[in-house]
Amino acid sequence: MGLVSCAWQSISMDFVFGLPKGKAGNTGIMVFVDRLSELDHLAAVPGPIDGEGTASLFLDRVCRQHGLPEAIGSDQDLCLTAKVWKSLFQVFDTRLDMSTADHPQTDGQTERVNRVMEDILRSVCSKTPRRWSEMLPLVEFALNNAVHASTGFAPFYVNGLANPRVPLTPPRRGSGLSGGGIADRLVAISPVAVRKQVDDFVSLRLSVLRQVRDAMTESQALQKEYADAQGRGNVERFEVGDLVLLNAKTPPTHTVSAVFKTKLRPRFIGPFKVVAKKGLAYTLDLPKKMRTHPVSAEALEPGQHAVADPREAGQQQVAGPQVAGKTQQRD
Asked: Which Pfam families does the record cross-reference, listed alphabetically (predicted)?
C-alpha cells in the first residue's frame, strides 16, 4: 500500500476472535484503522460473519462517519474473500489490498492495534473477562485519545485537529467523585438517590478510562521492547510441535493456580505445545481454565527448560488451541 495524503483515504481492517462469550453473545471484535491518523473503530461481533454482515458493519462504523476509502488493507479472512464483499467494492471503486503468504505484513497496522487492544482488555477485564464487550467503547476512546509514538499526536487530533474533552477527575477515597467542578455539580443533584446513581455511573466509567490509560502505557512499553527486539533480530521463532513457555502475566490472575499467584512466581509457565503458526502468531494447546484473550507472540519463550506445567498445579482440563486473533475449540 502506498502513501496516503488525508485521513480515511486508506484503511486497514481485521478480526479478533476467541474472546469469552458475554451476555450479548459476542466472541470477537472487528477492527478498522485509518492508516494516516491511526484512529480506530472497534465493533463487537457474535462470531465469524459473512461478507454481507461485514459490509454492513463497514458501512455503519466507517462510511457513516468518514465516507468511502480508496483502499482497504486486510488479511485473507473468508468473509473478506467472499464474492459479495469483493463485488460490493468493485461497485464502490475501492481497492482491496489483501496480504499474501509472501507478504504477510500488508495489514501490519491492525496487527499492532490488535496487540495493544488485547493487552488493554486483558488488564481492564482481568476480574470480569466476560464484560469485555461492555468496556470496548471506552477502550476505543482511550486508544484514540492516546499519543502515538509514530505521529507524536493522538489519533483524535490528527483526524480532526482537536482533542476531546475528558473529565478524568480522580474518585474520592472509597467511591464517588471529588475535586474540581464535577464534584461541585454532583453535590447539587437531588434527590440523593439520583445523585448516587449519577455518581456510580460516572465513577465507574472514569475508573475504566484510567485503567485503560495505565494499561496502554504498560502495553506500549512492552510493544516498544518487542519492536526493538525484532529490529535486533532477537525474537524467537518456533515451529509446530515445539514446546514454549507463556509469560505468567498473560493469563488473568484468577485463571492461574495458587502456585503462580505469589510474588515469587516464575516469569513463565508451561510448557505448551505449538500446534499452528502464522508469522509471529502461534497457536498454543492451553488448559481450559487458562482460556483468556488472545496471546501475543512476544509473551513466548523456548520451553526446553520448563519451570512447571500448570496441568500439574490443578489445571487438569485441556482446551482447544488459541492464537493471537483466533481461538479454536476441540470437541
From this structure: SH3_Tf2-1 (PF24626)
Per-residue pLDDT of 95-125, as tens digits, reads 988 765 444 444 556 677 777 777 777 777 7
Give CA separation, 162 vs 137, 156, 233, 241, in Å.
19, 7, 39, 50
Q: Do 213 and 121 fall within a single domain?
A: no
In a domain? residue 174: no
In angstroms, rounded to a whole number, what is the distance separating the alpha carbons of residues 40 and 62?
9
Domain count, the chain: 3
Do 220 and 309 belong together in one domain?
Answer: no
- Set of cell numbers at residue 208: 475504566
Cell of 226: 518487542
Band of the pLDDT at 19, cuts 50, 70, 90? confident
Residues 6+ apart with CB under 8 A from 39: 7, 33, 144, 155, 156, 158, 159
- DSSP 3-state of 88: helix
Residues 263 and 199 in one domain: no
β-bridge pairing 10-17 and 71-74: parallel
Q: Which domain holds residue 126?
A: 10-160
pLDDT at 262: 36
For residues 258 and 269, is the Cβ–Cβ distance under 8 A? Answer: no
Q: What is the CATH number of the domain that holds 36?
A: 3.30.420.10
Res 295 pLDDT > 90 = no
pLDDT tens figures, 189-199: 889 899 899 88
Q: Give the span between the Cα atoms of 66 and 9, in whole angstroms.
A: 9
∠ CA 74-295-263 to the nearest 5 degrees? 155
Neighbours of 26 (CB within 10 A): 20
Tell me the per-residue pLDDT of 29-60, one tens digit each, with 9 for 90 and over.
999 999 899 999 999 998 878 888 888 999 99
Indicate whether 209 belongs to any domain.
yes
Residues 69, 128 within the same domain? yes
Which of 25, 159, 3 has its CA nearest to residue 70?
3
**What interhelical angle do 192-231 and 132-145 show, nearest 10?**
70
